[in-house]
Amino acid sequence: GEEEEVIAHPTYEVLEHVTYKGVQIGSVLSVISPVLYRKNFSVRRFAKISLITTSVCAGITFLLGVGRLHDQSEDAIYDRAYRLRYNRNQVEMDRHTKIFAPIGGLLGAALGIFVPSYSLFSLAAGGLVWGSALGVGVWGAREIIRAQNEPRNEQTQGTDTPKKKNKT
Questions:
Q1: C-alpha span between 165 and 36 (Å, rounded)
Q2: Bigger pLDDT: 92 or 46?
Q3: Cα dist. 45→19, 22, 40 in Å?
Q4: Residue 167 and residue 84: Cα distance in Å, rounded?
Q5: What residues contact 21, with CB distance under 8 A and at least 6 apart?
Q6: Residue 2 pLDDT > 70
Q7: For the chain, how big is the Rg over CA atoms in Å?
Q8: What is the pLDDT of residue 123?
């Protein structure tokens, strides 16, 4: 049978996941900010709004996660971490965020080096946010293509969960 790893730090894994959800939500919300401020749009304003929105969303989801886990048993937390680890959709979306956010940040920083009229920090921060939003978009596009190419059973959609192993 398929052997899986024991989850050494389940609380950390759950909180990391909910924090990534906040980053993903905040970055997608930030993408619409230029539409809201199109008359007074500036790169600095966009970067500031994006960074604040994404940070607030990540902070809120982290705190909600801490609150939710506060009164949960170790077994319940382990079970949640286990289900997250083996949910293909969650793992892939988080992976896309981890890959595209730094790429966006590096591209923003590179642009800041070559366009000295803009703040390097503003462009790097904006790039992180846009990279994260792009990661969510790429993941979504892949899911649409995947759904069109291979019909899935609704009961097992997004999960590749092997039989659960005891945590000891």
A1: 49
A2: 92
A3: 24, 21, 9
A4: 15
A5: 61
A6: no
A7: 19
A8: 84
- The whole model's pTM is what? 0.79
Q: What is the dihedral of CA 128, 130, 133, 134, to 10 degrees?
A: -110
Question: Could you tell me the pLDDT band of residue 1, with boundaries at 50, 70 and 90?
Answer: very low
Which stretches of the chain are DSSP H helices? Answer: 10-31, 33-36, 43-70, 74-85, 88-114, 120-149
CA separation for the pair 82, 6 (Å, rounded): 9
Q: Which residues contact 128 (CB under 8 A, 6 or more apart)?
A: 51, 54, 101, 102, 104, 105, 108
**Tokens linked to 21:** 């959800």
Separation CA 98–CA 113 (nearest Å): 23
> Could you give the CA distance from residue 149 to residue 94 in angstroms, rounded to a whole number?
23
